Structure formats: C-alpha cells, structure tokens
Amino acid sequence: MVKWFLLISSLFLFLTPEVVFSGTKKDEKFFSYYMPGLKKDDDVVVELYDKNYQKLADKKVNIEGKMMNIKKEKDSVKIISKYDSNYDLLLTFAVVSENKTWQISNSYLIPNKKGTISDDFDNEKILLNKVATDYVSPYHRLRAIDNIDGDDPDSNGFTGGWHTFDDKRNTPTAKMESFRLLLDEKEYNKNGMYQADTVKLITTNIVQGTNTKKLDGTGRGILKEKIIYTIIGGEIKVEVELTPLEDVTIDDYYFLQASTNNYNNGIIPVGDPLFPDEIKNFSYDIFGSSKEKSNCSKLILSDGANYLTMEIDPSYGIGNYEYNKNNSIWFYKQYGKLYFNLIASEKNSPLYVEKGKILRARGFYKFERKPL
User: Residue 318: phi, psi to the nearest 5?
Assistant: First the structure.
C-alpha cells in the first residue's frame, strides 16, 4: 500500500492542467486529477489551502476503481476483469484473418489472489480458449440476384468472418468499414491503458457474395454487417444488424458459434429433450431438435473446470428461428465446432432478402468457473 498526498490551493486548481472541473454546486467544486500508478488500495489524503497557502483542511479519500482494465493497441483491445478469487480473466479482440476484421480472439487466465484487478497485460497467463476461427457467423452462399460478376459464381462456400476465396487461395471476402471503442459510453481513439465498467466495440464490415467474390480480393460487397460487442466482466454481449446493399439470397446463417478446441469435456444443450444429459462423446456430428420440439437457446461448453456459455435471445429479431422451419436449431460438427442455426434454408429455396431490409439478432458469450 502506498500513501499519496495531494495538495490543493485555489491557485493550483487554475494553473494545473491535470485538474478538470466536472461541475459546481453552490460553493462546492468538483474536479478530477490523474495520478499515474495509483492503486485502489492506496491511501490518498487531500490537503486544502487558500490562495495564501494557509491550510484549510485535509481529508482521506477512498479510491473508486473500475471493474475492468483495458489496453487499446492498433489492432487489438485487451480487457482484464476478475474471474474468481485466484484468477483474473483476459479477453482479447483483434483484427484477424485475411479479411482484417475485428473479431473475438484468445482468452486467458492470469493468476491473481489479490482483491484488485491486474493491470499487467504482459504478466504470466494461462491459455483458456484459443481462437482460430470465427465466433460470430460468416454467411453460407450469400448471393447477389443481379450482376453476377464473381470469379467462382457457383461456389458453395462461405464469405465473411475468417473465410477467404477458398481453401487454397487466401484472398479476402470481406473488409472492415469502421471501428469504434466506447468505454462507459465515451469514445476513445488513442492507444493506451484505460479503466471502465463497460466496454463496447462497434464495427461494420462489407461482405462479398459467393458469386461476386474475386480471386484478387476485390469482389463486390453486397451486405453490410454491423456487430456490437458489449463486455462486462466475463460476459460478451453480441448484437448484429445485417443490411443487404442490393437484393440477395442467403442459404445459412448461424449467428453465434464456438470452437471446442479447449472446451472439449462436455456440451450441455439446455432444454433440448433429445439430449437431457451432458454430451461427452465428440467423435461424430450431433444435431439438436427442431424448433417444433425444442426451445433450446443456451449451449454450454465445458473443459471440466470452466464453462463457456453461448445464448441467443429468442424474443429478438431472427432469434425466433422464423427462417429455420424444420432443421435442427443447433448442431455440432466433429471437426470441433458448435453452432446455433438461425437461418437454414430448405433445399433449392434460399432466403430472399431485399435491399435495405435489416436482419437483427442478439445474444452473448459468458466465461465463468463451472459451479461446484
């Protein structure tokens, strides 16, 4: 614990640039003062003086700390919060893949038994979840109706997210249009270290169609994708707005998905009567119930000691599965990935979406200890 003394006089207040008045109430004056290296458990005493430097009073001040420490860099945002009594949680968001778009990236545990949150982003850490794939879904057979000018117009692949032209040619199928970082609803553009109770990342991307993508990566974008990530502790709220820039069709869109590389001990599809018990066998493809037989909106992945939960809001936008009439509303593929299934077109009947019509969905990911 360190003891700090802040000497304040009327002259000091008006000549020191670090002191910022935030308001007045009658004869009271409110100000903030930046003190590098200050910790939440430090003692701070404010001594007040008049214009003649005669001491008026002193007062011990409690330091109010935020619940997250943030480090903003050019192509990444790192966020540390408390995980449990022994560890802090480090979440990362980064510009990734050949598409160079902002996406969820790796998460780590930082050993820390103190009551305060670590602000050492380079300290010892333990990998909790390695991410080398898209968590917010790409688009399966997003296709333009008119002006088909792509280099592989009959492609059956995906565009957006981590997906490139094809498995052999790694040219982009999407590009970032904008990015904003808001901390407690205030926008920050400069790299640096910050604190906040709420972190919000807002990004928009332009996504090519499977029949407009080009080998050189310059294919025509036919859909604008807006993703809002709101982070509070170990929870990442996700909201998407998908706006076609021209008339399009979409075969499939999953929304939230997750890899089981690290969380490979079990899957719990909450509320699905087909799987009342935790799934332990990952050696085959698994398909959940249809919406007629299940209202499952929460999937929990376990590594034995920790949970990664992903959940959609069935009361909002396309989360009610209106564009998935008969197919499984979630599924797992044995290559190690779990999906919701919000848009699942019938054979030869893709979803038609006219220019300007917005499709919306929201949900969240949550990192937490497995309950005892």
Answer: -85, 5
Backbone angles phi, psi at 319, to 5 degrees: -70, -10
Asked if 339 contacts 330 with a C-beta cutoff of 8 angstroms, the reply is yes
Using alpha carbons, select from 130, 345, 132 the residue that is nearest to residue 254.
345
What confidence tens digit (pLDDT) does each residue in 92-133 have? 999 999 999 999 999 999 999 998 999 999 989 999 999 999
Name which of 179, 178, 183 is nearest 193 in CA terms.
183
**pLDDT of 17 over the 50 cut:** no
> Would you state the structure tokens that stand for residue 85, as one six-digit string?
């009594």
Nearest Cα to Cα of residue 229 among 92, 31, 106: 92
Cα–Cα distances in angstroms (integers) from residue 68 to residues 116, 123, 183, 231, 253, in the given order: 10, 16, 10, 9, 32
Give mean pLDDT, residues 207-221. 97
pTM: predicted TM-score of the whole model, two decimal places: 0.84
The CB-side HSE value for 94 (13 A sphere, CA atoms) comes to: 15
pLDDT tens, position by position, 217-248: 999 999 999 999 999 999 999 999 999 999 99
DSSP string, 26-56: TTEEEEE---TT--TTSEEEEEEE-TT--EE
